[in-house]
C-alpha cells in the first residue's frame, strides 16, 4: 500500500445539478463533499476549466489540473520526439507504437506524451483525487470534438484502481505490450521540475512502498517490456536489462518478450 497518503475533500459548487452530480461522484471515489474552503489540507473544486486541485493554504493559487489538451505543455514534453529518453525507453525510436499501460498516472503527463507519440495508452491511478482530475479532463475533451488533439484516438478511458490488483484480475483479458511504472519515493527527484507539483503529488500519493511488488506483477503481464522511471542516482528496484539516462532521471527497462 501507499504510505502516508493525504486525504482530499471535494468542494461543491453553487450549481444545483452540477453539485448533486459531483456529490454523488465524490461518494463513489471516497472523497468528502464540502461546501466551503477547508481549514487544512487538499480539496478539489470545479471552475470554468474543469476540476482543479487546491490546498487550503493557497486557495487563490493556480492549483493543479490534468492538462491533457494543453498544447504548450505537451509540446514541451514532446521535445526530442521519438529520440527523447521517454520514447527511447519504450523503443519508439526503433519500433512501431505499442499498447501501453501507465500504472501510476499521477496527472497523466507521461501518459499523454506517449499517446501523442502514437501509443494506445490506458492510464491507471489509485489516488481518488488524481483520478478525478484525469477523468474530468478526459470527459471534457470527449464532449468537445473540435478541441480533441490529433492523438486523441490513442487515449483510452482512465481506470481508478490499484494497478497490481487490476492486472491480477482477469489477466488474460488485459494484453499490453509495455507497462510503465513511475513510483513516488520519499526523496524528491527532479529539482528542476515545478516544486509545487512535485510536493503536492508526493503528499497526495505518499510513497509507493509496494512498487517492487508491482514491478514483479508487471513483468509477468507485459508482452515486450516494463519501464520504470527513477531518480538518476536511485538504486534499481531489480537489475534491469537496459537503462536510458536523462539529466535528472533514469529509465530502467525490463524486457519481457512473449510470443
From TrEMBL:
Q: What does this protein do?
A: Specifically methylates the guanosine in position 1516 of 16S rRNA.
Subcellular location field = Cytoplasm
Record organism: Salinisphaera hydrothermalis (strain C41B8)
The residues that the entry says bind S-adenosyl-L-methionine are 109-110, 125-126, 182
**What SUPFAM superfamilies does the annotation carry?**
S-adenosyl-L-methionine-dependent methyltransferases
Q: Which domain of life is it from?
A: Bacteria
Main localization is: cytoplasm
Enumerate the catalysed reactions: guanosine(1516) in 16S rRNA + S-adenosyl-L-methionine = N(2)-methylguanosine(1516) in 16S rRNA + S-adenosyl-L-homocysteine + H(+)
| Record GO cellular component, one term | cytoplasm
Broad enzyme group: transferase
Q: What's the gene? A: rsmJ
Put simply, this protein is called: Ribosomal RNA small subunit methyltransferase J
Which EC number(s) are documented for this chain? 2.1.1.242
Question: What family does the database annotate?
Answer: Belongs to the methyltransferase superfamily. RsmJ family.
In terms of InterPro entries, this protein maps to: 16SrRNA_methylTrfase_J, SAM-dependent_MTases_sf
One Gene Ontology molecular-function label: rRNA (guanine-N2-)-methyltransferase activity
Q: Which UniProt keywords apply?
A: Cytoplasm, Methyltransferase, rRNA processing, S-adenosyl-L-methionine, Transferase
Amino acid at each position: 500500500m501507499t504510505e502516508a497518503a493525504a486525504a482530499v475533500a471535494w468542494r461543491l459548487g453553487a450549481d444545483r445539478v452540477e453539485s448533486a452530480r459531483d456529490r454523488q461522484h465524490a461518494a463513489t471515489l471516497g472523497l468528502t463533499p464540502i461546501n466551503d474552503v477547508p481549514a487544512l489540507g487538499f480539496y478539489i473544486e470545479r471552475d470554468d476549466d474543469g476540476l482543479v486541485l487546491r490546498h487550503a493554504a493557497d486557495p487563490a493559487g493556480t492549483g493543479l489540473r490534468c492538462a491533457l489538451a494543453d498544447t504548450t505543455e505537451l509540446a514541451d514534453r514532446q521535445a526530442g520526439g521519438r529520440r527523447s529518453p521517454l520514447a527511447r525507453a519504450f523503443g519508439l525510436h526503433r519500433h512501431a507504437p505499442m499498447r501501453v499501460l501507465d500504472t501510476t498516472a499521477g496527472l497523466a503527463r507521461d501518459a499523454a506524451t506517449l499517446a501523442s507519440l502514437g501509443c494506445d495508452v490506458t492510464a491507471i491511478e489509485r489516488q481518488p483525487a488524481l483520478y478525478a482530475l484525469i477523468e474530468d479532463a478526459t470527459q471534457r475533451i470527449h464532449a468537445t470534438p473540435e478541441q480533441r488533439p490529433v492523438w486523441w484516438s490513442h487515449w483510452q478511458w482512465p481506470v481508478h484502481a490499484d494497478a497490481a490488483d487490476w492486472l491480477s484480475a482477469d489477466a488474460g483479458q488485459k494484453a499490453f505490450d509495455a507497462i510503465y511504472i513511475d513510483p513516488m519515493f520519499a526523496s524528491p527527484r527532479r529539482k528542476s521540475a515545478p516544486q509545487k507539483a512535485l510536493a503536492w503529488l508526493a503528499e497526495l500519493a505518499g510513497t509507493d512502498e509496494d512498487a517492487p511488488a508491482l514491478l514483479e506483477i508487471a513483468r509477468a503481464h507485459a508482452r515486450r517490456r516494463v519501464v520504470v522511471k527513477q531518480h538518476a542516482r536511485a538504486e534499481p528496484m531489480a537489475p534491469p536489462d537496459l537503462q536510458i539516462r536523462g539529466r535528472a532521471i533514469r529509465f530502467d527497462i525490463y524486457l519481457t518478450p512473449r510470443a
